[in-house]
Amino acid sequence: MYRHIHALQQVARRTISSSVRRQLDNKVQNKQKLFQEDNGIPVHLKGGVSDALLYRTTMMLTVVGAGYVVYELVKAAFPRNKT
Amino acid sequence: MAHQAHAYHMVDPSPWPLTGAISALLMTSGLATTFHYKTTTLLFLGTTLLLLTMFQWWRDIIRESTFQGHHTTSVQKGHGYGMVLFITSEVFFFIGFFWAFYHSSLAPAIELGGLWPPTGITPLDPFEVPLLNTAVLLASGVTVTWAHHSIIEGARKPALQSLTLTVLLGLYFTALQAMEYYEAPFTLADGVYGCTFFVATGFHGLHVIIGTTFLMVCLLRHTHYHFTSKHHFGFEAAAWYWHFVDVVWLFLYISIYWWGS
Question: Where is A61: in which H helix or E strand?
Fold first, then answer.
């Protein structure tokens, strides 16, 4: 039984270390090239399309949220109760 | 292309201070509408916006530093001052709750039976899970220091291992504390004892979760080669915060768990 456990350990170790080596190469230089490109794009949009999507979602929630707060505050300040 | 004649960082215009401010407005008004009308929409919207703001703001700081090189020594020094001042403000936040605890426990009111713990309260045994929690956090202080030394020495594998261990210990503390909360024979509603206990330990627990998250981000960054042996301020800031969380626990343990039983 111990031989099986030892074999399993070896397989797991080799699998983990080889997949780790594949996924975690140093990509910092590529990122540095992308973010230092002289294109005038501000840092919060410089990463690409996903940046713009996330920004637009956030800003939409901000505007809708601000409007909704004003609505709720007006509703709370001028209650429409009939008693 | 224009070049600056100083060592400081003039940041690009950013929308995150606005979205952050609006999220604060939404969260506070959301608390009010939740309490009064039981509608959680505003609160939920505010929290979502807060999380989006934090993610994008800190993502941008990583881009500005690791990818664009804006964090000179002077900039790092400023960040150091900032972090120290922030942690100091948090210390004062906790001082308030310790003040409340000592105010009520040093001269227990007649309504409590004139003693501490008050009549009817069975406190937790300080030498059971609370002592384990103390050991867990102290050990995590050791592992985070080990991680720091490993990063300085350029020892990648020990750095990743010790940082992972630190995060695991943080999660273990949170799990143990959650179990203690569930099993406790007293609640938040149990007079001034319950109030001081759960508010003080509760805010501490929240800070453990924040600290663990900060360390997890550092772990992720280190796996992606963001830190060098000479430049890793994000990690240092996380380590300072973690030590602060540890020290607060030690005060909590001595005051509330041990003396307070």
Answer: helix A49-77
The answer to whether the CB atoms of B12 and A43 lie below 8 A apart is yes
In angstroms, the separation between the Cα of residue A82 and the nearest Cα of chain B is 17
Rounded to the nearest angstrom, the minimum Cα separation between A34 and chain B is 8
Coil vs helix vs strand at B178:
helix
Contact state of A65 with B23 under an 8 Å Cβ cutoff? yes
Domains: count for chain A: 1
Residue in chain A nearest B19 by alpha carbon: A62
Per-residue pLDDT tens digits for B113-163: 999 999 999 999 999 999 999 999 999 999 999 999 999 999 999 999 999
Kindly indicate the confidence band of residue B9, based on its pLDDT and cuts at 50, 70 and 90. very high
What percent of chain B is modeled with pLDDT above 70?
99
Residue A46: list chain B partners with CB under 8 A.
63
Give me the residue spans of the domains in chain B: 1-70, 72-258
Residues of A in contact with B14 (CB under 8 A): 42-44
CATH superfamily of B72-258: Cytochrome c oxidase, subunit III, four-helix bundle (1.20.120.80)
Of the candidate CATH numbers 1.10.287.70, 1.10.10.10, 1.10.443.10, 3.30.200.20, the domain formed by B1-70 belongs to 1.10.287.70
Extract the tokens encoding B141.
Answer: 């202080």
> Does the N-terminal peptide bond of residue B117 adopt cis geometry, omega within 30 degrees of 0?
yes
Q: What is the ipTM of this complex?
A: 0.86
The gap between the terminal CA atoms of chain A, to the nearest Å, is 79
DSSP state of B256: I
**Gap from B11 CA to chain A (nearest CA, Å):** 9
Contact criterion met (CB < 8 Å) for B63 and A43: yes
| pTM score | 0.90
